[in-house]
Amino acid sequence: MELKGKTVNFLGDSITQGSGASSQEHFYCNVLKEKFGLKCANNYGIGGTRFARQQIPSIESKWDKYFASRVDEMEKDVDAVVVFGGTNDFGHGDAPIGSFDDRTPDTFYGACHDLFKRLIEKYAGIPIVVVTPLHRLSEDNIQGENGRKGKDYGTLKDYVDIILEVARYYSLPVCDLFASSGLQPNVPVINEKFFADGLHPNDAGHAAVADKIGTFLLNL
Quick one: CA dihedral 90, 96, 102, 104, positive or negative? Predict the structure, then answer.
């Protein structure tokens, strides 16, 4: 799709909000806007938020504004929508993974269905691009950061695979950063060059993310 002069909504977590970058001009949304000539990059990133609805409220209430709950607040007259999240569901979300048949935001599977369906209903005919999470340090720890245990949770890759599976069901295009961003913080040289803390990209990382997502949009 042509990007010059277009308006894109970006729905996400702290990475979309700009964490790790040194200033607003280095947020990946703003880098993408400038590099690809967007008219407007609407940033709907809220740090700490997840696809799924939290079962036990967070200390900060804004963290519980799960993705689908914010769709109604987003600008409707746009040319594309980008959804980038899932890492917090792995990292500190308490909703179980669930199963493909779930349709409520109380499991990760259900939250993916709920979010994608709400976006399709609001933005019918407009490109909706799903972006998989970046790699992060300790991504194979199935206990996450909450000491969670058991089959109800999994590795970050498990969450990525669910996003891919549900996006495929709705025939939504996926920019698979987990598979092809080149950003793997468990490799020390990559962590040092592209990440602020092993999770959030620094300025160079935001620029890399902007290039990957912008190029993906351009090739739709």
Answer: negative
